[in-house]
Design a protein that fits this description.
The complex is a heterodimer of chains A (about 350) and B (about 190). Chain A is an alpha+beta fold and about 350 residues long. Chain A contains ten helices and twelve strands. Chain A has a single domain, classed as 2-Layer Sandwich (BirA Bifunctional Protein, domain 2), CATH 3.30.930. Helix content of chain A is about 35%, strand content about 25%. In chain A, the strands form two sheets. In chain A, strands 1, 5, 6, 7, 8, 9, 10, 11 and 12 form a nine-stranded mixed β-sheet that branches. In chain A, strands 2-4-3 form a three-stranded antiparallel β-sheet, with no helix packed on it. The two termini of chain A are about 30 Å apart. With about 190 residues, chain B is mainly β. Chain B folds into three domains: about 60 residues, SH3 type barrels (Roll); about 60 residues, Nucleic acid-binding proteins (OB fold (Dihydrolipoamide Acetyltransferase, E2P), Beta Barrel), CATH 2.40.50.140; about 55 residues, Nucleic acid-binding proteins (OB fold (Dihydrolipoamide Acetyltransferase, E2P), Beta Barrel). Helix content of chain B is about 0%, strand content about 55%. Classes of the chains: A alpha+beta (about 350), B mainly beta (about 190). Chains A and B meet through helix 7 of A and strand 3 and strand 5 of B.
Chain lengths: ~350, ~190
Amino acid sequence: MTPGHVPGVFNVIMDYPRMTMPPFWAPTASLARLRARARHLATIRCFFAERDVLEVETPVLGQGGSTDPYLASLSLEASTPEGRRQLWLQTSPEGHMKRLLAAGSGPIFQLARVFRDGETGRRHNIEFTMLEWYRPGMRFDALIDETCALISRVLGKPLAVTRLRYREVFKAHVGLDPLTASLDVLRLRTEEAAGVAAHDWSRDVCLDLLMSYQVEPALGRGCLSVVQDFPASQAALARCHRDDDGEEVASRFEVYHEGMELANGYDELTDAVQQRQRFDADAEARREAGLPRVAPDERLLLALQAGLPPSCGVAMGVDRLVMLAEQADTLSEIMAFDSHVC
Amino acid sequence: MANYSTNEFKGGLKVMLDGDPCSIVDNEFVKPGKGQAFNRVKLRNLMTGRTWERTFKSGESLEGADVLELDMEYLYNDGEMWHFMKTDGSFEQYAADRKAVGDTAKWLKEQVAYTVTLWDDNPIAISAPNFIELEVTETDPGLKGDTANGGSKPATLSTGAVVRVPLFINEGEVLKIDTRSAEYVGRA
């Protein structure tokens, strides 16, 4: 027996997901991988303890869900003191954590379980672990440095960091300016890139496809690539600012390693009125696309009205980080049970 | 037929695309950090055997294809069509044309079972078992003492297929052949 093996089914699943399928009740990760995962989680907690960032736990269920038209929230009906209510499984712990910030928590982090309906694949699972942290008062640049330091620590090697602007990296890999190219040109390029009928696709959907197919796979090869200054239309919950060319861009960054998106950071929007407008715009987009209505997070809006300190925050896919650290090919290999066998 | 949404796409599912029945080979979920999710799907066109790569917005759907894969025994060729019979005891027969039989024609041997793909009850593809045993009908005489250094020569088999065989193989011998690579495996 090799080290790390124990008698029993863990021996069988060492071969997963090769031809021999394990029994239906068996875990999808090997015991060695589960031990490695536990070590990486300990490293993350240690990293934040050293920096005096408080670990918090917030509810998985909330009275509001994510209104983002590109995220499918799951919900359930619960018996509460107020009677039967629809509650939403969180797609990220953002709302609750911002309410803690508004209450004066100071810097906080969480290893949260989050849920996104329909997302399954090699790099996706309906339920997954998200590391989210907030740094009130920290500069955006300092947060990028901190994010890269954490990734390097977990991966166990110092990685060079390359910082790129969305517009430049897009131009370099697609050969088009994402801010000024005409919609017709973008649609044509999308059709060429993906064998798809894109004649009625929106600008952002074309950009998303080209980014996913032609840019992301080239990023972070042997290093960490940080992409920043996203188009303002892709701001989500981030502030916007004018870039060096005078274009309005989102104060948002993404970190990639080995062609995979690992983390997404924002200079957080703290204006309740603007946040309300974005919720309303999401609701309208959902209605137009025939997507189900999701209750917006009214308590987050109240917290923003009460006052959220200027804060930067990051969300990081812990499972993907562990997958890279362990040189696994799929998330299943580092999750005790993936969505197929849960 | 029912419609299938991208998150139901999995290997082996048969769907209609551009008027042809296809079998899904691979389905990769792709999503940029924020924004629209896509499914990057590899499909095998069952009419042509070609593999297509297509992208769908997640949540889009395709119509299912009425495709069945059945084991059938090869019976005979009438000069135009190849005839097969179900192995389920029904004796039901199907005739496949040149297009459906394709390259498999050179592996067709009576009484051997093949996988016949039916679309709307018509044969559209025939695939051979991975290994088949066939007799050598023609090859140059064996050369003595030259078995160790991997020398080979062409041999024609009873179905008309030509494969490379070791020098020691003689006419009349029955060989085991891998139909996927058209390679000699051993004496049967």
